[in-house]
């Protein structure tokens, strides 16, 4: 079993996030923040590794069509194996 499969076996949730960039303020000519907003979380503790991988792929394909990265939102989708339910994250980036 590979290391990546072992990590998948140990994680309890598959969390799907909408990711992107938002305008965060006019300072220094304007700046943007990266964000990660939860869409869905699935408890996969009872699933085998193959089923987890298949479910993660299915969720990614389902939601990437909704959040396709079209201008002006620059949104995308991230699927993560995690031991916690999802949390929103907003991080500032360099001034632009």
Please give the alpha-carbon distance between the first and last residues.
45 Å
Given helix and strand content, the structural type is alpha+beta
Q: What is the number of domains?
A: 1
Profile the largest sheet: 4 strands, antiparallel
Order of helices and strands: HEEHEE
Shape call: elongated
Care to count the β-strands? 4
Structural notes for this entry:
By secondary structure, the chain is of the alpha+beta class. The protein has one domain (3-95). The protein is 25% helix and 42% strand. It contains two helices and four strands. The protein has helices spanning 3-10, 49-64; strands at residues 13-25, 31-43, 76-82, 89-95. It has a four-stranded antiparallel β-sheet. A hairpin with a 5-residue loop joins strand 1 and strand 2. The radius of gyration is 16 Å and the shape is elongated.
Question: Can you tag this structure with a few keywords?
Answer:
96 residues, alpha+beta, 4-stranded antiparallel beta sheet, 42% strand, elongated
Short description:
The chain is an alpha+beta fold.
Set down the secondary structure blueprint.
Layout: H1 3-10, E1 13-25, E2 31-43, H2 49-64, E3 76-82, E4 89-95
Antiparallel strand pairs: 1-2, 1-3, 2-4
């Amino acid at each position: 079993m590979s290391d990546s499969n072992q990590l998948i076996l140990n994680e309890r949730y598959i969390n799907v996030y909408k990711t992107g960039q938002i305008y965060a303020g006019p300072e220094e000519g304007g700046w943007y923040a990266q964000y990660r907003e939860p869409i869905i979380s699935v408890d996969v503790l009872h699933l085998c590794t193959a089923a987890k991988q298949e479910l993660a792929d299915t969720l990614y394909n389902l939601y990437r069509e909704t959040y396709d990265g079209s201008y002006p939102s620059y949104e995308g989708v991230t699927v993560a194996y995690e031991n916690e339910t999802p949390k929103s994250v907003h991080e500032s980036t360099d001034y632009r």
